[in-house]
Write a structure and sequence with these properties.
- The chain is an alpha+beta fold.
- It has 1 helix and 7 strands; from the N terminus they run H-E-E-E-E-E-E-E.
- The chain is globular and about 30 Å long.
Length: about 120
């Protein structure tokens, strides 16, 4: 049993080295800015830790984000998936975005780009 415990120590140390720090995705708080540089107004904005199937509430409701406009919203901790729906019903999504490092989300055409 003691030998098993000794073998587990390096594994535990490796896990601790990869654990998120205070600025990591799960610990991030504060607003994220959505900028609309597309040719259409944005009608809906979703941000979710889980992504498709678990988008939650529309963060823009009940308004829209006009072309050239910006909107600031608080997103759930650990959010890494964003979705926007344009006024014509088309949508764009981006998964795997670290919103702690990318506090600005810019919609350009049918793309979503994260930035500081």
């Amino acid at each position: 049993m003691r030998r098993l415990a000794l073998l587990a120590l390096p594994l535990l140390a490796a896990c601790a080295a990869e654990a998120p720090g205070p600025g990591a995705l799960g610990a991030c708080t504060g607003p994220v800015t959505l900028r609309n540089e597309a040719r259409l107004a944005v009608e809906q904005f979703y941000a979710s830790p889980e992504g498709p199937g678990a988008w939650g509430e529309d963060l823009l409701a009940p308004g829209t984000l006009p072309v050239g406009g910006a909107f600031s919203a608080r997103v759930p901790p650990g959010t890494s998936h964003v979705r926007v729906v344009f006024v014509d019903g088309s949508a764009a999504e981006l998964a795997g975005l670290d919103l702690c490092r990318n506090r600005t989300v810019t919609v350009t055409g049918r793309e979503i780009i994260g930035g500081p």
